[in-house]
Amino acid sequence: MGRFAIIVACLLLLSTGSLAQDWKQVRKADEAKWAKATGLDPRTIHKLWRQASQVANEKDDDSRIANLEVEGLSDRHQVLLVTYTGEKNCLTLTIFRQYSETTFSKLWSVEQDPDGQGFCDSPFGNASADVVKSVIEVRVPQAPDASNGYANYKVYGYEWNGITYRFTGKRVEQGR
Fold this sequence. Notes:
globular; four-stranded antiparallel beta sheet; alpha+beta
């Protein structure tokens, strides 16, 4: 029994080390994917991800990039980074002001709707955030409509007021 416990402990230690390595590889792949999609350097994307993170140690951060929007807010020299984390893939939206190809500063961030609920996936669909005509729209899946079976989404809008982003309202849309 003692030898078995030692073997199990060793296997656990080995698997934890490989998981940390796997996360590093997953991040590198994410950064390469978003670099190809946006034209930004992978190192710049990594810096943005770290600035958006709320976890002090990079090795403890399990967040991933869901969206990196560089075009929709470019007239204001802003970039939207959407990350997700946790069991329910809850979103955090972060706006950066872009000063050069590699220099950005964090301008604004939100991870909950005005009612204090996270922007999370549900059994009915995935949460998402996009820029639509210079407005940030966050879509959060809700229970299907009993009359037709289509999923509903609460859509939260955030608009630039010249200083920061402010909540402008929510609406319900049928799923896509």
